[in-house]
Amino acid sequence: MTDASEVTLEAAGPENASLLANLLELYVHDLGEIFPVAIGADGRFGYEWLPLYWSEPGRRFPFLIRVRGQLAGFVLAMRGSPATDDPDDFDVAEFFVLRGHRRDGVGGHAAFLLWDRLPGRWIVRVSEANRAGLLFWRRTVDAFARGSFSETGRAGSPHGWRVFTLRSDGQGANALEVRGDDGHSCA
Ligand SMILES: CC(C)(COP(=O)(O)OP(=O)(O)OC[C@H]1O[C@@H](n2cnc3c(N)ncnc32)[C@H](O)[C@@H]1OP(=O)(O)O)[C@@H](O)C(=O)NCCC(=O)NCCS
Q: Is 105 in the pocket of ligand 1 (CB under 6 A)?
């Protein structure tokens, strides 16, 4: 199991745009098992919102996940969630761990780092058809929030959504008792 101290969340700048675009191809392909995703004539799915992550500072937050310095995934987060009316809510837009790093605690550690980095109310939306994602978020949100979260349903097509709501105070204080003082352990 990867130790929390080995996982970093690195803010991604515009110089990382093509790297993120490449990882997004893998991510969208993975999600193609759940949603119908259309591939372009150039053999790429594309992700039209990526440039917004550098043109809307303060509202969009792109991160790379690294394990011992090696690329292991990415997170795209934003302020304003399609699931709520509060423009200050944070929302996990996209979250991806490379297959070679899965089931090793990397995603959990990265989520803890994300919520600690940006304090406030967080919304996580996951398709009911994304079984792995749903189990991952239910467990990870619960571990971070120590049970103080809500999970609600939301209609969607072709599948409904589960919507998790939790708070971060930026200190990880909610989970300090179980994590100890030396880092995170949500796995
Ligand atoms: C979902 C995802 C981010 C999980 O990342 P990860 O690094 O493998 O997650 P972790 O190792 O931290 O898992 C923590 C816990 O979540 C649950 N979990 C994670 N993946 C699971 C899976 N495939 N099946 C069942 N439970 C799973 C388990 O309880 C796991 O603990 P355990 O391994 O001790 O049983 C990763 O599988 C992924 O990138 N999937 C494709 C993209 C995606 O669906 N993103 C989420 C969109 S909402």
A: yes
- Each residue's pLDDT tens digit, 42-88: 999 999 999 999 999 899 999 999 999 999 999 999 999 999 999 99
* Residue with CA nearest ligand 1 atom 23: 132
Q: Which of 106, 136, 138, 163 has most ligand 1 atoms within 8 Å of CB, for mutation? A: 136
- Indicate the residue type of 137: W
What's the gap in Å between 107 CA and the centre of ligand 1? 7
Architecture of domain 4-179: 3-Layer(aba) Sandwich (3.40)
Closest Cα to atom 22 of ligand 1? 132
Ligand 1 pocket check for 1: Cβ under 6 Å: no
**pLDDT at position 171, please?**
78
pTM of the model: 0.93
